[in-house]
Known about the structure:
Structural class: alpha+beta
Oligomer: single chain
Amino acid sequence: xxxxRNLFKTYEDAPLLEGVSFSVASGxxxxxxxxxxxxxxxxxxxxxxxxxxxxxxxxxxxxxxASTPPHLRDFGLVFQDYALFPHLTxxxxxxxxxxxxxxxKEETASRLTESLSMxxxxxxxxxxxxxxxxxxxxxxxxxxxxxxxxxLLMFDEPLGALDRTLKDAVLEQLRLILHxxxxxxxxxxxxxxxxxxxxxxxxxxxxxxxxxxGTPAEIWRAPASAWVARFLGMGxxxxxxxxxxxxxxxxxxxxxxVSVHCADRFKxxxxxxxxxxxxxxxxxxxxxxxxxxxxxRARVEDVVFDRERFKVELQGGLFAYxxxxxxxxxxxxxxxxxxxxxxx
Length: 344
């Protein structure tokens, strides 16, 4: 359906997008995930027609949209700041785009009722948007985007202004709406939890390039580089020096020698980033020799509760997520699964 081909863009003579290409299939939700300055919002604005690329194309079902103005692309946009009209009621805000299309009154009324029902705002038609909470205002913005029945929905950090409770509630509702309506969507965010909860497919952007693409499960199982592992907080990225390569690779690290199943892409003496994912605070057991892992014994320097687990900082800079909280100052043994990573 939507296809971006080899998009380039610079800002103040510095590259902002460098050959970005991707597609969005029918009914698919694609999340553009990356830190500030990675080019996410610029990419969205180019697709919306609000900015032009210096080279490359945006196509819809094979048709180049370069000459199609934003209001004729039939794409719905939802922003972080809601972009509602404060002097209008909820109904007037939601119906604004419908009136621009000069639809019959009956059709306008039907779509208004339908879109407000989707976001659980039945009965809010006469309310002023300035009297609503942040979560309610964002749902009005979503209803306004849904009412014209766009062929693509685009979201630019839509939940950034909401607190945790409201964000979780709106995110759950948005996921349900997208799955129910099957409207293809592009969702821009720097929040990893949002992306992993919502996306069918995630595109990780770093310095204007897509550095990894895949389902949430695929990305979490196999990060493409040290940068991806650090950005997603998957674990500890530790420098290893290759010692030997014979079926399994042996690396020397500051936490001991580690044997890992690793692609044949290095030679002895090479420096390689390794991902230490925390497993448990007990040894592996009988099959330890078959595990890509290492058991580290170290003193506990800090313990922070992180929802259902405890983030434990260890002497030497490692951290682990454990089900039970040790005491600061205790010496504990933590098993880490180890994976080879590509360099940034």
